[in-house]
Amino acid sequence: MEKSLPSDVNIQNLARNLLLLIAMIFVVPFQAFGQLEHHPNRHVVVLIDIDPVGPYQSFLGDASSLPATIKRFLSKHKLYNEGDYLTIANYSMNLAETGGNNLQTFVTIPKDGRGETLAWQQPDLDRFFQGISSTWESISRGQHIAKQPAGASRGSLNSIHLFYAIEAAKATKDSIGANRLTILTISDDLHQGNDNIYGDMRAVFNIPSSQLSQASQKKIEKDANDRSAAVKSKFTLITMPKSEIIATGYRSNGVEYPYQIAVTDVKVAREPSIQSLLHLPALPELQRARGGYHLSIASPEMAEGYELEKLELMVETENGTSTYESKGGEGLDVMLSRNDVVNGNAHATLKAWVRYNDGLYNSLILNPYDEDYKGLQIEQGLRIGDEPKIYGALSVSDGWWFPFLPDNYYTTVTIYTVVITIIILIILVCITLYVLNKISTYTPDSQKITLRP
User: Fold this and answer.
1) Best label site of 210, 263, 342, 381, fewest CB within 10 Å?
2) What is the secondary structure of 325-379 as a DSSP string?
3) Nearest to 83 by CA among 128, 45, 31, 135
């Protein structure tokens, strides 16, 4: 039986698969290290309260309205750009008895219709929100409820949702991260206890259909307060003036609670700097080497809770500007020609990208090009360190630097010092032996010798 030739369709499929493979090889590493670029990227978490008050329940489940509203809001305020990451998350607490473990599923991340988790994606916004509109009810509400026990009412607990969203939105791969974390909360912002954790919880626990025991209530309160303290000690939560009302219709005690999108920026609580995190108060001095000078920055010992992702060193001289970089916590060893620094006009800028291992999110990479983290760069003129000389007087010029000699200047000076010392000692020994030989040998003068009878 004759073998059939591959059809045009098969050839096209083969070509497409090959292109996808090539794209994976080249694009995936770019995405993995996108947070190490000069332009800071952002991780946007769209956090949806699935238990708003009655008038807003229909708006929450409206697949033709809310997804489009979120997309428009992101575009309008330029909160999502190329290279950024997007995550969808939901929150509410089921008031059924679960032994005080209710907060374990307080914030959850749903999956799309293909079963792909809606976390740390880099989508085209138009296609993304169009694609999830068909399963919006499941994404915005159904999956969250399915992960929690049935049998009781729900409570939003808007006083603590940000504290739990930070950990829920962390990356699942160590190779990715973001330079900024921004949370968009879609909620009626109704705090049952006037923005106080205890008051908020008491109001929720007292809902008639609540099945929580006193022991569970105490455990939940302790967990929430511990999480609040942990987040506040590591991060600063900044409410941004970009909120937008998307629906109205609910009032409580004369106060209107609109359905709105609120924006919160999450930043590190401790102001970072190269001096404090890398224990590097200044750039080291230039050290003489074969053909020029070394600028050596050893792999730094990082402050606890921080991990060095990248170093970038830019050196400016009269002959131009050169940039050097290292990744993965490595140091830098840069060689500069003598012409670059001979007039003492070399200037250097060192910048560091640092991952903040806070124990919760662990995905924030502090970028020195971000206005908030300018402390992660230092600038200074480069100084030439004191050069040892042979007997404190003779420098080793490049003309003396024979190929068999090491590149290290100090070692070369030591070798020359030892060799010259040995030569001098040999010369001194030879002179001494010659002199001793002269003074210890008697040669008679025959003309002065007389014989007596």
Assistant:
1) 381
2) EEETT--EEEEEEHHHHTTS--EEEEEEEEEE--SS---EEE-TTSGGGGGGEEE
3) 31
Q: Is 222 helix (H, G, I), strand (E, B) or coil?
A: helix
- Which pTM was predicted? 0.81
pLDDT tens string 131-147: 999 999 999 999 999 99
Closest Cα partner for 314 from 351, 282, 284, 341?
351
Burial class (CB in 10 A: 0-12, 13-18, 19+), 348: buried
To 5 degrees, how large is the angle CA 164–CA 167–CA 169? 105
| Both tokens assigned to 145 | 């409820």
CA 44 to CA 215: how far, in whole Å? 36
Cα–Cα separations (whole angstroms), residue 33 to 176, 199, 208, 332 = 7, 44, 51, 19
State the average pLDDT over residues 305-317. Answer: 93
CA neighbor of 351 nearest in space, from 376, 318, 316: 376
Nearest one of 91, 96, 219 to 157, comparing CA atoms = 91
Give the strand pairing for 42-49 and 180-187.
parallel
Report the percent of the chain where pLDDT is more than 70.
82
Burial 50-70 (b: 16+ CB within 10 A, else e): bbbbebbeebbebbebbbebb
Whole-number mean pLDDT of the chain?
A: 84
List, for residues 222-232, the tens digit of each pLDDT value. 999 999 999 99
Q: Three-class SS of residue 155?
A: strand
3-state secondary structure 70-110: HHHHHHHCCCCCCCCEEEEEEECEECCCCCCCHHHHCEECC
Q: Which residues of 317-326 are buried (b: 16+ CB within 10 A; e: fewer)?
A: beeeeeebeb
